[in-house]
Amino acid sequence: MATAIIVLVLAGGAAWAYFAPFGTGESPLPQNADASAGGGGAADELVNRESSVSLNAPSESSQREPKREVTGISKSDATATQPADAAPATSLSPEEPVARSTAKDAPARGTVRLEELATTHVVQPGESLKRIARRYHVTEQLLARLNGLSDLHKIQAGARLKVIEGPFRAVIDKSAFRMDIFHGERLAASFRVGMGVNDGTPTGAWRVFNKLVNPEWTNPQTRQRYAADDPKNPIGEHWLGLEGISGAAVGQIGFGIHGTIEPETIGNNASLGCIRLLPEDVATVFEYLVEGDSIVEVK
Prior knowledge:
Layout: E1 3-9, E2 15-21, E3 29-32, E4 46-47, E5 52-53, E6 68-71, H1 114-117, E7 119-122, H2 129-136, H3 140-147, E8 160-163, E9 169-173, E10 178-183, E11 186-192, E12 195-196, E13 204-213, E14 215-218, E15 225-226, E16 238-246, E17 255-258, E18 269-271, E19 275-276, H4 279-288, E20 295-298
Parallel strand pairs: 6-14, 9-20, 12-18, 17-19
Antiparallel strand pairs: 1-2, 2-3, 4-5, 7-8, 9-10, 10-11, 13-16, 13-20, 14-15, 16-17
């Protein structure tokens, strides 16, 4: 596949290189020449297979982030106009439902409880929850849930916190439409997912390189815009960007994990390659997987 590289120089000297594939209908994915993957900046913008996301806000550790823009072209996300190659969703054969574990639910049978994985950390002067989470390769949100904290910014020196040595990882079984979250070899949670039409989700290993909360979304074909918090926003409120690092996924960009407003597509091949979950499930996955550390294996 031929690729064009377009370089833009923005105000302040930030440089963007756009890698534009020809003949695929996919949006280009800009790479910030001055920042690490998933980094931010006033003019930062991520365009991916299902969505383009403008990184105009603080990191995903904020409890509520300002608006971010997403432009998507998946079969059911692009509600006004479907792409030509988007086949109808394939119905899943009846089977036993996959057990789910969310922040409000007890772990499914066979899964390990977070408390079983926890050790104790004594908060040192000057430490923040974000710094502690980074040290243990987990998210602030997971530590907050584990310790019953309502405010991520209020911890005191000398406090004893339960912590888990991460990172967690995800394994996705395409044929079973299932995502399993593991800590080492121990199963922590399982979720039903929707996958790409025409076997459009490449197998192999992916790294989570970008996480966004509460994005806006723009239909790239009709240019219809959906505001953050709009209940009709097809992309939902959580996005985890992926970069391929092995197998058929190696070198691939523009894929991600996100929510959906069409629950009937879960358990079906309905996207152009991204992995979708129910809103409450993607919110929990967002807590488990760490930007830059967590690996997602698709098989």
